[in-house]
TrEMBL record:
InterPro entries: Glyas_Bleomycin-R_OHBP_Dase (IPR029068), Glyas_Fos-R_dOase_dom (IPR004360), VOC_core (IPR037523). This is VOC family protein. Residues 4-125 form the VOC domain. It holds the Pfam family Glyoxalase. It comes from Denitromonas iodatirespirans. Gene3D superfamilies: 2,3-Dihydroxybiphenyl 1,2-Dioxygenase, domain 1. Coiled coil: none annotated.
């Protein structure tokens, strides 16, 4: 298997609210059926699907709580961009988990939760860039 992630699907409690949240962050929505939403992510997709339906599809319980054991990350080109995107996420309805700050590994990062409690890290790594460059 070639290592890559083609799509991340999040099980959400309120699909229209989740769609609005991610559209407010500027995620480009693709055409999709009314029971699911897809967004392009520069080489991968983000899917939003009803939590119960996603659990049923995977044949697992939809019950869950606490820390899910992972976080999604969005790397940015500067500390100022981290602060800017954090403000945008909070304005869209995200919950602040960790204020952006200098971190032990020499970078700058903070965390928010989306409407369904999924953790997102916003980070600037001055030692390596992971993402598209404008230049």
């Amino acid at each position: 298997m070639k290592p890559r992630i083609s799509m991340i699907t999040l099980g959400v409690r309120d699909l229209p609210a989740a769609i609005h949240f991610y559209e407010s962050l500027g995620f480009p929505r693709m055409e999709s059926p009314p029971t699911v939403a897809f967004f392009t992510l520069n080489g991968t997709w983000l899917g939003l699907y009803g939590r119960e339906a996603l659990a049923e599809d995977a044949q697992v319980s939809a019950e869950g709580g606490g820390f899910p054991g992972f976080a999604l990350a969005h790397n940015l080109a500067s500390e100022a961009e981290v602060d800017q995107v954090m403000a945008q996420a909070l304005a869209a309805g995200a919950t602040l988990v960790k204020t952006p700050q200098k971190v032990f590994w020499g970078g700058y990062s903070g965390y928010f939760k989306d409407l369904d409690g999924y953790l997102w890290e916003l980070a600037h790594n001055p030692f390596a860039w992971i993402g598209p460059r404008d230049d």
